[in-house]
Every structure is written in C-alpha cells, then in structure tokens.
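COMPLEX REQUEST
Ligand: iron/sulfur cluster
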Amino acid sequence: MGVLAAFLRAQHVPVAQHDFLMEYLYEAPGLIDYHDAQQTFSEAEYFSFLAGRDAHAGLCAFTHRFWQRIVPGARIYAFSIVAYHQFWASLLLARTIKQHDEEAVIVFGGPFITIRRTESLTRFGIADYWVKGSGESALLMLYRRHELGMDIPLAKIPGLVALSGDACLQNRPGHWPAADEAPPDFEHLAIDRYRYDHPHTGKDTLFLPYRTTKGCASRCSFCTGRLVDPFATKPVDKIVGELKALAGAHASTAFMFCDSAVNNDPRQLALLCARLTHEMPGIAWYAYARIKGFDAELLRAAKQAGCFSLFWGVESASEPVIRLLGKEFSVRELSETIAHAVDVGINNHVHLMYNTPGETEEDIRALIAFIERYIASEQVTFIPHRFLLEPRSLIFRHPGRYGITRIEKAPRGVFEREQYVFAEGGPGGFARIRERDARHREMLEPYLRLIEDKEARRAKIGFPFREAM
Ligand code: SF4
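STATUS: Structure written out below.
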C-alpha cells in the first residue's frame, strides 16, 4: 500500500491511506473476531447484512468504526487485499462507502485478488473494478479516467477486471518493473502502532518494510507465490539509497525485508551486504530466505551487514519430499546451511511441513531427526505446518505428476481458507490418506509439543518468538 501511495503521489495524485488491518487484528475492538473459532457472526448474518436485509449489531459497529475515518468524497477507494478476512472486511466497508456515495469508484486489488479465480470475486459484486497484478498503472489510469475525465478505454488498463451486464472484461495482469518500484511512503499511517520491543533491536523498534526484489525465483510445487509477480531484482544502488532515505525519514535502522527469499539472487545479495556493511553500519534486518544459494560466505556477509534473523522455507528433511515440493536443495545442503547460520550467530526460524502427498514414515523420521538436532538450540525456532493443497499451485494444477489421483473440495465456511482433500491411487481413497496423516501426526505429536513448550518458555522470558522474530 505504501509503495502504491508513493507512486501515485509522485504522479500528483492526492492519496490518503489507512491500515485498518493492524487495528482490527491486534487491537480487537470486540466487534468482529476473525480468529475466534466461533466467530462473532454467522455466514447467514453476514450476507444478510451485506445485502442490506438485516441489521447486525457487531457488523454494523465494525463498519461504522472504520468507515467514519475514511476520507469522504474521494473519487476512488482502493482496497489492498492479502487474505480472506481482509476480503470480507473490504466488502463491508466498500458497501458502506457506496451507500453514502453511489458515485464512488471501488477497486479491489492485491495478492488475494491476483491469485483468486475471477468468478470467485465478481460474484460478490460491490467493487466496480478488480485489479490483478501490479496496481501502479491501473490505479493511475483509473484516476485519470474517473477524476480527470481522460478518455482511457478500460480494455487498455493492465490487469483490470470489470463487469458489464453479463460480460466480464479481463485484461492481462500488469507487472510494474522492480527497478522502477517506489520506496514505501507511510504518510497518514499511525506509524507508532508498528513499534514494539524487540530483544535484538531494543524498545519501541520500528521495523521498516522494504523489498529488494519482486516475485520469487523458485517454483515450489505447493505455493502460489509465482502467480503474484515475476521475479525481478532492484539495482543495488537504488536499494541502498532508498534504505538510507527511509532510515533518515523514520529515525530507524531496523528493516523487515519483505522479499519472498532475500537470497533469490545470491550475487545481488552479496553486493548489497558489502554496501550495507560499509555504508549503513547500524542497520539490523531480518528476512525470508531459501536454502539454495545461501553458502557460508554469504551468511557471514549477511550477518556482518546487519542480518540477525532468517526465516527458512525448509519444509522437509527428507530427499523425496524436498523434491516433491520443488525445493531444489539436498539434505546435505540443508544441514550445512542451518549449521553455518547458527555458527555465524544468526537466529533461524525454520518452517516445516507434514502430511505432504505420498508421505512415508521414513519421511517423518527424517523430520524428527532434524527437529531433535536443533530443539535445544536458542538460535533455532521451528514453525510446523500441515500441508494444505492450495488451489492454482503446481500440485493442484498437475496432480498426476505428484502422485495425486483425485482432488475434492472439503466443506468449509465461506470465511475460512478453502481446503481440498486428495487421493493417491490404490485402495482406500481419501480415507487412507486421512488415516496416514493422522498416524504421522501422532508420530510427530511429542515433537510438536516440545516446539510449543520451547516457544512458550521463550515468550515468558521475553525471548524472540514467532511474531517477534
Ligand atoms: S521460495 Fe517461498 S515464495 Fe518462493 S516459491 Fe517457494 S514457497 Fe513460494
């Protein structure tokens, strides 16, 4: 959002921005709680309220609370949507805006909108446009069309989706070059809300978000990240200049690098680390990283350049599963990389995945051996996840290549992430996979408890835990 705001302001478009996500997730107003399993409203209540049929005290208070802070009378209201719950909240706010100003133009964009099938978005209506891919060109052109009255055909606007009667216009997504991406502008955001005490960087640290690349160079078979942006790097000169400017503007040298993997281009990272070491000696940063392309030398360089924590997409310690997930590293590389990272003094947050397709007990034993090796280390935190078959992932698209024979949607509430079950051929169908998953989960259970206990203990003594890196 900050990147788009910066770009539009540079084009002389007046922009106000709000980050309601921080507020409704972390300062729970007690009106709607998306993390409450019981939820504070039912699907029937939500859709009835959205359609204007029935009142609902919680939903009404929620929309009123945020709507009244939105600048009235703007021509365009654009929502940046990353996750399911943001989509439902955006529909509520957009509907309220339309009720008060039917001329207002509503635009939904962001990764969620980019990845989702068009029909699953347009069926809810309310928005005038949906934008897939980068928002820079699309928002600028929509502003010029609607506010300045310029004759810009909708068909020329990159990534635009628009309904016209029964017809649906769907333009190819636009991809704004990484080299031209503006550094984020946080004007109008309550920046102090983003500060927190961190054991590495101290009290009230403001971690400034910045990405050195766009997209991801990997093609992991379970991930849909490849659908958001093609991979591209920013020139190192630009990165260093923008980091210095952000640090100066916000009096903070703490950064969260928001790349899919900060070492997607190891050469670029090596150059960047060398520059940061000499030109920004006080900088402290953390990032996501991939095992492939992070050797001992680069880890040392990263540590010297201020890296204090890395989040690794490891997922498995078993060769067949690593291959199936498309992770492109060997077990030997995994062991060496984590050992080097620990040696140089970097904290490691290791994502692990279980219940993957075709999983064997041997795969689980390899995962357990890996957990056992580092469970006592204060420099390693494990973040385990159950495998979820993501629509539009490579596994979903080409199930046969991954040994999957049938995919079916599992019943889930509309407010929850979609889930699918799959079979793998042979007898037993879905039930066999279910039983196998349960057995493997049982094997892992004592280790999942150890991981939880470790986190709880660290949280108690103020050690960096999951959210605090
Ligand atoms: S490295 Fe991460 S973002 Fe990139 S494809 Fe793999 S899982 Fe997705």
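REMARKS: The chain has a mean pLDDT of 90. The longest strand covers residues 307-315.
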